[in-house]
Amino acid sequence: MYQPTSCGEVEQEKVKECAEPLYKMGAFSENSHYLGWEGFIFRTKAYFSEVCDNFFLFDVCIEPYKDVCFAADRARFNYDAAIKILDFLCRDGYGEMLRNFECFTKTLTRSEMMQCQAELVSDTRKISESHSEVSGANDAAVCGAMRNYIDCVKYPIRYECGYRAWQLVREMIIRPTKAMLPQCKLNTAEKSSSVLTILVVLFISLL
């Protein structure tokens, strides 16, 4: 098996080729490589299953490049958040995701959930416009905005879909967030989670 010793342009292009089916399906974004979780919910179970099939192929395809192209934070950042969500959803969370698909779809359209999302977008826009020069200030502000969002969406999800569904959603935000904001403390037992795509506003706020 081919084993590259560095992650140059050729190797990076190979990784992108591995990801091409996921790009075409919209699971990876050309600009930020983030995964839109609600993109699954507003499509179909069949779409979700196909994304997972392509993710497993992607995971095998990038195997020769993991040590050299995913070891350094800068190289890994482009894919890390999306990979962490897909790895969880397509493995440990797969059955629970399918069981709660219809409930998630219904809950995401509730007015209080839409208000939670609007508040999060507003908060992160303010952060991105502040251009703070204090080291770590933006990261801390984003982390705080996420905590507020977590508190906002927790009870609608638990009320409509149940505790196990809430645990699924909690994991979906903790794993990629740890990749982008390692210092953000979100994994306390009953106060950590979220729903909808907040990764995109995180990327915007960190630019």
Automatic annotation (TrEMBL):
Its protein name is DUF19 domain-containing protein
What is the organism of origin for this protein? Caenorhabditis tropicalis
